[in-house]
């Protein structure tokens, strides 16, 4: 279990996180939501071990995250960051196999795992393409395949593994947004822990087991999405007006507009 | 889904003659053959009339016992002149090419080259300063240490320059290639001026001329130079198996490299020290030879891709072969005089550099 206790983080004289305590449980897909600048990415990077909180602790399986070496952490958790630029002409296959760089997997097995991961993100047959020729959405899915390789089995020797996704759907079409969340939910169902930052509350509501709502660096609320996602919260945290909410409600009840997104909303 | 953004990539996809997998398998055997040929040619070709049959006869004589008469003269030419010169070319070429590839990985930019960004000129300045100062304080330094003074000083100069460049070009984990190249120009000009000044002021007979320090030369190579730079280049080679994976991960960015299980800070420190050691010792032995570190990795990346586990050893082989080949040209084109080898590498290298810019101006912009 990944546990944060009383996290504080500040940078450039600004308090970015204040007194955040939470638990990430294996078997759950935890989604972090909040308006721009709420501290989602800062919290995320404290949980991955990339940033050290000013005070407070993050423990993984009861052990302080700061005491893990980079290879130890890499065996337990994989992180998909927001953007990945590559200025060198790697093939898709090579990028995905980077996920296994620390695993000591032999090359035949690496290729197999990478191909399977590419298949999983709907990019089967893309292995020999140059990463630089892909569209933004395709690149995002290649990066997802890479982090999937790193924690291919949700539960391995060291116990459950953690899959961190920072806005994994930002460049994706609607179909692939669902695919990515299916992958994360499936990872959790098979015993791993998945943590994602999302902006689309409808998708968050559909897939999340637990929602963490941040507001100005503070934990506003957390819990099941059905309980957390209320009109009061949207008004307060996301500063939606009654008119916004009415428009959202209208788009749901409109007879000719029956997309999955709309029905999932509220 | 299949459309690509025009001109957005550095190496536009072309239909290759051979697939990358084939090229990757063939790379090391092919380059080994190429290097062997270059070494043979370099031992056989020269202004004196020692030819291939003479070399064979010499080898035969050496194996059976001491050569005599005509063989003795040939032995001096082959063993004491051509062989050390060829081996020095191999070590310097391999060291420069591998350093170039490592720096390009570290800066995540195919234009980062120890010669272009001023590391070589920083090393040259330190080497010249060491010679001049050692002349003034000759009593302080025991004579047994003098052969090592030059490479160590050049290493220190290269290291300081690299650290300074990295500090100037990197702000909050982002390396600005523009800042790096501009700082490199400034540092290069500064150390060029100081080097020129020191050479101008120096009356030391040992001090080789400005051409040597700015264009490089393998002329006058002896076993002493070979042995002096061997430990530095050997250190670089010994590190290759340990940095390949890390450099691959680093191409994704420092954060991603950390998440993949590598310590980017430690990796960066190692790469800076290793490249400074190799570049510095190469400059101490053969002057500042440009463009090897940019041409060799660039050509190989087009053929076999950027995977450093294969790229770095391949760079060592091709770098060695290229420099030995360039040296053959430099001492035969205007024989019996010699062209500075930097002229030959610049003629090959500058067009490659320009072609990188033509293909993607954006390498400047991030």
UniProtKB/TrEMBL annotation, chain A:
Official protein name in the record: Heme ABC transporter ATP-binding protein
Organism (species): Stappia albiluteola
SUPFAM superfamilies, per the entry: P-loop containing nucleoside triphosphate hydrolases (SSF52540)
Source taxon at top rank: Bacteria
General function of this protein: Part of the ABC transporter complex HmuTUV involved in hemin import. Responsible for energy coupling to the transport system.
Pfam families recorded: ABC_tran (PF00005)
Keyword Transport in annotation: yes
InterPro entries found in the cross-reference section: AAA+_ATPase, ABC_transporter-like_ATP-bd, ABC_transporter-like_CS, P-loop_NTPase
TrEMBL record, chain B:
Gene Ontology terms describing biological process: siderophore-iron import into cell
CDD domains: TM_ABC_iron-siderophores_like
Alphabetized GO MF terms: transmembrane transporter activity
Subcellular location: Cell membrane
Membrane topology: Multi-pass membrane protein
UniProt keyword Membrane present: yes
Keywords associated with the record: Cell membrane, Membrane, Transmembrane, Transmembrane helix, Transport
Transmembrane segments: 26-46, 87-107, 119-141, 148-169, 175-200, 221-243, 270-298, 339-358
Keyword Transport: yes
Classification via SUPFAM superfamilies: ABC transporter involved in vitamin B12 uptake, BtuC
Signal peptide range in chain numbering: none
GO cellular component terms, semicolon-separated: plasma membrane
Family: Belongs to the binding-protein-dependent transport system permease family. FecCD subfamily.
Protein name: Iron ABC transporter permease
Organism: Stappia albiluteola
Organism lineage: Bacteria, Pseudomonadati, Pseudomonadota, Alphaproteobacteria, Hyphomicrobiales
């Amino acid at each position: 279990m990944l546990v944060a206790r009383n996290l504080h983080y500040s940078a450039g004289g600004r308090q970015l996180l204040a007194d955040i305590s939470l638990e990430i449980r294996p078997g759950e897909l935890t989604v972090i939501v909040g308006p721009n600048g709420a501290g989602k990415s800062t919290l995320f990077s404290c949980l991955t071990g990339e940033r050290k909180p000013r005070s407070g602790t993050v423990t993984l399986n009861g052990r302080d995250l700061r005491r893990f070496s980079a290879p130890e952490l890499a065996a337990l958790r994989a992180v998909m960051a927001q953007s990945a630029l590559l200025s060198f002409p790697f093939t898709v296959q090579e990028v995905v196999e980077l996920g296994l760089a620390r695993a000591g997997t032999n090359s035949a097995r690496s290729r197999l795992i990478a191909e399977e991961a590419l298949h999983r993100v709907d990019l089967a047959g893309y292995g020999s393409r140059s990463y630089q020729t892909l569209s933004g959405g395709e690149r995002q899915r290649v990066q997802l395949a890479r982090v999937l390789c790193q924690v291919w089995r949700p539960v391995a020797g060291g116990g459950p593994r953690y899959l961190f996704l920072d806005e994994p759907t930002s460049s994706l079409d609607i179909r692939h947004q669902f695919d990515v969340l299916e992958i994360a939910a499936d990872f959790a169902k098979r015993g791993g822990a998945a943590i994602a930052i999302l902006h689309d509350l409808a998708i968050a509501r559909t897939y999340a087991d637990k929602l963490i709502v941040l507001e100005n660096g503070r934990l506003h609320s957390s819990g099941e999405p059905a309980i957390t996602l209320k009109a009061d919260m949207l008004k307060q945290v996301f500063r939606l007006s009654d008119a916004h909410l009415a428009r959202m409600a209208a788009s749901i009840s409109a007879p000719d507009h029956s997309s999955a997104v709309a029905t999932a909303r509220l | 889904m299949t459309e690509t953004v025009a001109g957005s990539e550095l190496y536009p996809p072309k239909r290759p003659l051979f697939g990358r997998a084939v090229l990757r398998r063939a790379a090391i055997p092919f380059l080994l053959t190429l290097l062997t040929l270059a070494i043979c040619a370099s031992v056989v070709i020269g202004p004196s009339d020692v030819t291939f049959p003479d070399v064979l006869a010499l080898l035969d004589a050496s194996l059976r016992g001491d050569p005599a008469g005509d063989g003795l003269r040939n032995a001096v030419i082959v063993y004491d002149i051509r062989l050390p010169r060829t081996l020095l070319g191999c070590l310097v070429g391999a060291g420069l090419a591998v350093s170039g590839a490592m720096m390009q990985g570290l800066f995540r930019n195919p234009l980062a080259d120890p010669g272009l960004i001023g590391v070589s000129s920083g090393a040259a300045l330190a080497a010249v300063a060491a010679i001049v100062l050692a002349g003034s304080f000759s009593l302080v330094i025991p004579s047994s240490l003098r052969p090592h003074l030059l490479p160590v000083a050049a290493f220190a100069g290269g290291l300081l320059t690299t650290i300074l460049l990295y500090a100037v070009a990197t702000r909050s984990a982002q390396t600005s290639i523009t800042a790096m190249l501009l700082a490199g120009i400034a540092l290069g000009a500064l150390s060029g001026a100081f080097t020129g000044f020191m050479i101008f002021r120096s009356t030391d007979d040992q001090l080789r001329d400005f051409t040597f320090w700015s264009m490089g030369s393998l002329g006058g190579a002896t076993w002493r130079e070979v042995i002096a730079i061997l430990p530095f280049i050997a250190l670089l080679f010994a590190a290759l198996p340990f940095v390949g994976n890390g450099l691959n991960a680093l191409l994704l960015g420092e954060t991603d490299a950390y998440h993949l299980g590598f310590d980017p800070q430690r990796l960066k420190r190692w790469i800076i020290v290793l490249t400074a050691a190799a570049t510095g010792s190469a400059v101490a032995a053969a002057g500042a030879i440009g463009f090897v570190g940019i041409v060799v990795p660039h050509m190989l990346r087009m053929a076999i891709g950027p995977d450093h586990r294969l790229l770095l050893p391949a760079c060592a082989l091709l770098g060695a072969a290229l420099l030995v080949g360039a040296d053959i040209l430099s001492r035969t084109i205007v024989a019996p005089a010699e062209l500075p080898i930097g002229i030959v590498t610049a003629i090959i290298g500058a067009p490659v550099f320009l072609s990188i810019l033509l293909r993607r101006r954006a390498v400047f912009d991030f």
